[in-house]
């Protein structure tokens, strides 16, 4: 292959890389702008606390990668939900499938007795 085609190939690849990087950057900026506009238009009550959710995902990821023992993702999420509801108020609690089924069974059993 002569020097000219190699040079053209390098220029073409470099140009395509540059164009795709610029395009990605512009797309990301447009997405952020749309997100900011959507946040402005969304009533406060309906907004998700994005910064806090980012913080949660960072902590979640750090625990997944760095905890002394391996922890299952589903277990981590379930523990997060349990913690959220247990700290909400004394009347809120998370019931997994088994606890929910057991609670229903006891409820119906008590209803049938009375």
Kindly describe this structure:
The protein is an all-alpha fold and 114 residues long. It folds into 2 domains: 1-47; 48-114, no CATH class. The protein has 4 helices and no strands. The chain has helices at residues 3-41, 50-66, 73-86, 97-113. The longest helix is centred in the N-terminal third of the chain and has 39 residues, at 3-41. It is elongated. The chain starts with a helix and ends with a helix. The mean pLDDT is 78.
Concise description?
With 114 residues, the protein is mostly helical.
Look at the helices and sheets and give the structural class. mainly alpha
**Helix and strand pattern:** HHHH
Distance between the termini: 92 Å
**Number of helical regions:** 4
Number of separate structural domains: 2
Key terms for this structure?
4 helices, 76% helix, mainly alpha, 114 residues, 2 domains
Draw up the topology in text.
Layout: H1 3-41, H2 50-66, H3 73-86, H4 97-113
């Amino acid at each position: 292959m002569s020097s000219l085609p190699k040079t053209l190939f390098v220029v073409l690849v470099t140009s395509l890389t540059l164009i795709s990087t610029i395009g990605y950057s512009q797309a990301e900026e447009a997405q952020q702008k749309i997100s900011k506009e959507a946040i402005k238009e969304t009533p406060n009550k309906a907004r998700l606390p994005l910064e806090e959710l980012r913080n949660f995902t960072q902590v979640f990821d750090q625990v997944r990668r760095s905890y002394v023992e391996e922890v299952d993702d589903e277990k981590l999420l379930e523990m997060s939900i349990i913690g959220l509801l247990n700290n909400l108020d004394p009347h809120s609690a998370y019931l997994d499938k088994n606890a929910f089924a057991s609670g229903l069974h006891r409820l119906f059993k008590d209803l049938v007795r009375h």
